[in-house]
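JOB MANIFEST
job_type = single_chain_structure
chain_count = 1
residues = 94
[input]
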Amino acid sequence: MLPFHLAAQQYAVPLEHVLRVVPMLLPTQLPGAPANIAGVVSIHGQILPVIDLAHVFRLPELKVDLWTPMIWLSTSTRELLIPVSSVEEISQAV
């Protein structure tokens, strides 16, 4: 599992879905996109959606800067990025 913090809450994502952790990239906003979509970014020519989990979970807005980590995830249908407050060390599920 890859534990991470979002606001004051701790969450974790299964490691098999994590491609990597990257530094914050300024997303390009999409007019008319749902509020949980912060925009899209291009990484190595691949356009990836940036999902605002703070909005999804109704947490305080995440204050982002150049040092904000983004977790690059792969699901069965797509790849996406989620900005988080911090990323912890990899842990084993109990």
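[summary]
Strands lie at 2-6, 9-13, 18-23, 37-43, 46-51, 69-74, 79-83, 86-87.
Residues 53-56 form the longest helix (4 residues).
exit_status = 0
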